[in-house]
Design brief:
Strand content: 15-25%
Distance between the termini: 50 Å
CATH topology of the largest domain: Rossmann fold
Radius of gyration: 22 Å
Shape: globular
Helix content: 25-40%
Number of helices: 11
CATH superfamily of the largest domain: ANL, N-terminal domain
CATH class of the largest domain: Alpha Beta
CATH architecture of the largest domain: 3-Layer(aba) Sandwich
Number of strands: 20
């Protein structure tokens, strides 16, 4: 534990040392880290050695950012269609690392490998962004999440001393129960998805509880301006948004001025491309991300599926970190049940079923739900029964017609993304 803390503190000090550096200095710093990562991936990660070799490229050929942009981009389909181990450093002892998965809202979930080093950077990046808002380790956190451990974690020695006090609340509960738990916790910080905060805002306005956090942190979904004002009014606290993903965590954060996401140079190289070329400043384009902190299983020139704008603006907060604005990505919708109760789509984005390759939930009316599934060879009556059982629990047993339809492909949005849960009314 002490080693992990020291590692995180070292990472945090490296981040702080560059927060007011010039853009030229930051670019040069990232270039050296990128070159080291690409060389490492070529030598030790099977997928990249094959992909770069097939393209006739070698890390020694990268002498500029233009050379870097010659590297083939990594897509979500690349991650799904190749064996997961091809993206892992050869010879890795899997007993010493762990995995997480994307939500699968853009298709089949992607496995992400992590180790102590990448975890240390994740903690440091989170603490840096939160620290800029005045949040300290001794503040009480409430994280509202769909993924909970089956066994409650015992508080460690630092939690007993008043540090690292994070309490996780399941979002798979009625609003009143979530708020009741929050009311008992009296959190300083509430950390969850924007759609969950909006849903709880409506319950707060109805007087269902009294919750008074000092900070609200939203992540994982697009945050419309109208949502922000509604949420802040209901909770009586400022709301800050962060940008990241399961694949590459903690890419950027909002400061008190809300001018965009400050991009942390130690987190990732962020490209904005329009028609395959670098977009001009203040021009919207596709985001391509290179995570700099996971050498165990790198994401290099990764097409993350979002769009955004690199801004030329200078934030009044004094940080010289680049600003990313107007990120447009997946924005989960609400499902509205026959009783009028609203349920965040995130309550069902982590469903896993044997016999299904991919699925999409389409709500046709408050009482009619379609589940479009791409079946595997093991799909059968038990699969359909399990789907109905899980959805019945997620929607509190309300009367719903659940129609399960097998299909060969799933419809995608105008931007080419698969929205896992969609409401048509």
């Amino acid at each position: 534990m002490i080693a992990d803390i020291l590692r995180s503190v070292h990472c945090l000090n490296r981040i702080r040392a560059k927060e007011r550096a010039s853009l030229e200095t930051l670019s040069a710093y990232q270039f050296e880290r990128m070159k080291s990562l690409v060389g490492h991936a070529y030598e030790r990660v099977p997928y990249y050695r094959h992909a770069y070799g097939k393209a006739g490229l070698h890390p020694s050929m990268i002498r500029s950012w233009d050379d870097f942009r010659r590297l083939p981009m990594l897509t979500k389909q690349d991650r799904r269609s190749n064996p997961a181990d091809d993206f892992l450093v050869s010879g890795t002892d899997k007993a010493r690392v762990w995995t997480s998965q994307t939500t699968g809202s853009s298709g089949i979930p992607i496995t992400v490998w992590r180790d102590a080093e990448s975890a240390a950077w994740d903690r440091a990046l989170m603490n840096y962004g939160f620290g800029k808002l005045g949040i300290r380790p001794y503040h009480r956190f409430c994280q509202i999440s769909a993924i909970l451990s089956e066994k409650p974690a015992r508080p460690g020695p630092f939690a007993k001393l008043g540090f690292k006090r994070t309490h996780i609340v399941s979002l798979r509960q009625p609003d009143e129960i979530i708020l009741r738990e929050m009311e008992a916790l009296k959190p300083d910080v509430v950390y969850t998805f924007p759609s969950v905060l909006l849903r709880l805002s409506e319950a707060l306005k109805r007087g269902k509880a009294s919750v008074s956090p000092r900070w609200l942190i939203a992540q994982g979904e697009v945050l419309p301006d109208s949502w922000r004002s509604t949420i802040e009014e209901a909770f009586g606290a400022p709301l800050y948004h962060t940008y990241g993903a399961t694949e590459i965590a903690r890419i950027g954060f909002e400061c008190r001025w809300h001018q965009g996401y400050h991009l942390i140079p130690d987190a990732a190289v962020v490209e904005v491309l329009k028609d395959g070329r670098p977009a001009a400043p203040d021009e919207e384009g596709d985001l391509v991300i290179t995570g700099l902190n996971s050498r165990l299983s790198p994401f290099i020139r990764y097409q993350i599926g979002d769009r955004g704008i690199l801004s030329r603006a200078v934030c009044p907060c004094g940080l010289t970190l680049p600003l990313l604005k107007n990120v447009v990505g997946r924005s989960d919708d609400f499902l509205v049940l026959p009783s009028g109760r609203k349920v965040s789509a995130r309550a069902v984005t982590h469903m896993r079923f044997d016999g299904i390759l991919q699925y999409k939930i389409v709500q046709k009316s408050p009482a009619h739900l379609q589940v479009l599934v791409i079946p595997s060879e093991t799909f059968g009556e038990n699969t359909a029964a399990e789907i109905r059982k899980v959805l019945d629990g997620a929607f509190f047993g309300e009367p719903l017609e659940i129609e399960i339809l097998k299909t060969e492909s799933l419809p995608v949005s105008r931007t080419g993304k698969l929205q896992l849960v969609m409401r048509e009314f």
